[in-house]
């Protein structure tokens, strides 16, 4: 069975989690980064946000941000530079949402994880075509994919992509040699 080699999160990591929902997966990320790390958890829905606030009360390394991930400038006073962005928003423009946040908060050479829900992006295209298009969208925003894995049979038409932001010129030269 295949999987992702490296999610680039470890103790002490600073993570921006987009699409935090009620905080279930955020709590797992909180465990990974430990008390030395921090998870900025962005959720737009007030209802899910209430649950997220409850989770954050018990976990001091979670900073809940009840805001629209499409407008990252709105939380610039709360969120600092991060090592990793985990994007789990089920929106047609999810690659653009990730890019907006990466340009604002992801350190150069930082990593991202995006869960692409093909039917949320384009229900008329094949999942493979949607993923290929989203990969091109990511590349055009200096978000270089490194690994991907489908979540079949657990989740239908879902692909997780892990990549790096603005990789250093040294890394780029290694690819062309």
From TrEMBL:
A GO cellular component entry from the record: box C/D methylation guide snoRNP complex
Keyword line: Methyltransferase, RNA-binding, rRNA processing, Transferase
PANTHER family reported for this sequence: FIBRILLARIN (PTHR10335:SF17), RRNA 2-O-METHYLTRANSFERASE FIBRILLARIN (PTHR10335)
NCBIfam families: PRK04266.1-2 (NF003276)
InterPro entries for the chain: Fibrillarin, Fibrillarin_CS, SAM-dependent_MTases_sf
UniProt record, GO biological process: box C/D sno(s)RNA 3'-end processing
Top-level taxonomy: Eukaryota, Metazoa, Ecdysozoa, Arthropoda, Chelicerata
PROSITE patterns in the cross-refs: FIBRILLARIN
Catalytic activity field: L-glutaminyl-[histone H2A] + S-adenosyl-L-methionine = N(5)-methyl-L-glutaminyl-[histone H2A] + S-adenosyl-L-homocysteine + H(+)
CDD domains in alphabetical order: AdoMet_MTases
SMART domains reported in the protein's UniProt record: Fibrillarin
Protein name in the entry: rRNA 2'-O-methyltransferase fibrillarin
Gene: Fib
Record-stated family: Belongs to the methyltransferase superfamily. Fibrillarin family.
GO molecular function: histone H2AQ104 methyltransferase activity; RNA binding; rRNA methyltransferase activity
Keyword Acyltransferase: no
SUPFAM superfamilies, alphabetized: S-adenosyl-L-methionine-dependent methyltransferases
